[in-house]
TrEMBL record:
Membrane topology type: Peripheral membrane protein
Name of the featured protein: Acyl-coenzyme A thioesterase THEM4
Keywords: Apoptosis, Cell membrane, Cell projection, Cytoplasm, Fatty acid metabolism, Hydrolase, Lipid metabolism, Membrane, Transit peptide
Source organism: Halioxenophilus aromaticivorans
Single GO term (MF): thiolester hydrolase activity
Length: 159
């Protein structure tokens, strides 16, 4: 105990300011408050544990709208993080960068048990200064349960 490096990594969302988004806003007390981080392989990851009221029709499965929110918000926050990294800045350092969802296509492949944590993994590709494509996968217990193809579009920070 007490020696070596400490993991002081801070989630993307905890570095963004004044974000009241239901899915990713640190400033929304009734929101999902997801937390996203860089992984060593260049993807961005997020782990989320649902509450019982996030259920689908059957109480044992996660609601598809909640899944969409997780995929959307993890993707957009990761696109924002990538843009800061590409500009050589820490998140929220200097002029703020904002992206929104231009489009999102989701394949729901398997039902997601509500009791198990999910893992979201986002692969990012910058298409132009204004557009980032994100392929975001949602896993439960190592099973690929949903996949989203997201177009993140940069907007002015007063959007
Ligand atoms: C949300 C934050 C913004 C505010 C900042 C506030 C606080 C900042 C703090 C933190 C922010 C952090 C996180 C917030 C995070 C996320 C929330 C989750 C995501 C959401 O929940 S967000 C809500 C849902 N989201 C919308 O409410 C979008 C409504 N919409 C629009 O606001 C416009 O529609 C817009 C901006 C999308 C485009 O408007 P625009 O005027 O820039 O249009 P333009 O044509 O110039 O598009 C430029 C290039 O994108 C291509 N393009 C555009 N749309 C496309 C589509 N649908 N399919 C295929 N390509 C598309 C064009 O083809 C062109 O491509 P090219 O450059 O190659 O020609």
């Amino acid at each position: 105990m007490g020696s070596g490096m400490q993991d002081i990594e801070i989630a993307f969302q905890d570095q963004l300011q004044k974000n009241h988004c239901f899915g990713c806003g640190a400033d929304n007390d009734q929101g999902l408050k997801i937390k996203s981080y860089w992984a060593d392989d260049g993807t961005a990851v997020c782990r989320f544990t649902a509450k019982p009221h996030h259920c689908a029709g059957p109480t044992r499965y996660l609601n598809g709208g909640i899944m969409a929110t997780l995929l959307d918000c993890h993707s957009i926050c990761s696109a924002i993080a990538l843009a800061y990294r590409t500009e050589g800045r820490a998140i929220s350092e200097g002029e703020s960068i904002a992206f929104v969802t231009g489009s999102m296509d989701i394949a729901y492949k398997q039902p997601v048990p509500i009791d198990s944590p999910v893992l979201l993994k986002a692969e990012l590709e910058s298409l132009s200064p204004r557009k980032t494509r994100v392929v975001c996968r949602l896993f439960s217990e190592d099973n690929l349960c949903a996949q989203a193809d997201v177009l993140a579009v940069r907007v002015p920070d007063n959007w």
